[in-house]
Amino acid sequence: MLRRRTFLVSALGAAAASALPEAVFAQHRKPPFKLYDTHAHFYTNDFDKYPIDGSTARYGAEALIAKAKAHPQTPEVIFREWDATGVAKGCGVQYGSAYSNDNRYLLDISRQHPRRIVPVVILDPVAPDTPATLERMARQDRISGVRFRGMPNMPDGTHNFLTAPSAPVWDAANRLGLVVVLMPHSRKVEDRRGVMKQIADLAVRYPNVIIVLDHMGFPVPTLTPTYGFYPEHLALIEHKNVYFKYTQLLIEQLTEGKVPRDAFLEYSARTFGPERMMWGSDVGNSEGTMQEFVHLALESAKRLTLKQQKTLFFDTPERIFVPGGRGPAKA
To answer: Which of 80, 8, 38 has its CA nearest to residue 276?
Structure first.
């Protein structure tokens, strides 16, 4: 089962912290290269201007509002943490739990801080007006991509963003050269394997879309030769426009499964290539501090060369998350 920390300190977080010496986070040093955080959630306690929806929040709207009131994740807050840990910039990923498809707060702050926040919005993948909205947001708001997430929501048990009704949105993303970030939830491994097959088909059909798999597509971390990646995962190696996001959630799952984080990441980089991988902290959603998130991520990369680390932690996301999109594919 997929597990998620959103408001309460979980056993996963406790396990991650207890696996390290008590003083280790206090001894954190910035890496010798800049970091790019591809998964930062921003939200404010200015509820009059930016009301919180919270209808999809795991612990309910009331708990989410209380969290935002006490600990808003504004640019001032997150930039302070980024500065302390060597993060130069990052993707502002629309916080769907708080604002659903209302991207106003994210777009407002990304306009105010264009050098540090690269917006990735959330939209309805099957709404008739979404293709035009993508066009407008790419032009006016300089979005770099769009994110689709959730449990299967179609009568046949599939995700609407992977089915034929979403084709106009994929067509628009392909024309614009946008990133499409996917987080298809599923509690059954066999369902996840089926999703990987669908993603392979989409990668062929939309070659100018860069598809990024949140949490690396949810492998089941195990001490096996493939570390829990299934054959359908590994088949995506052939599709050069499919990328993999290594996240705090995955780090927690590796810790819970007693899988060495450094061995997992070394295998992943060797298999997919660091030029198709990136890191995201999930700051604003996962419990813990930015210092912890950065330390755990860098500690798990200790088997990679310095060049590989720099590629994964900065160069790859800097290359693919292009404000306004990369434009039409070159002939």
So the answer is: 38
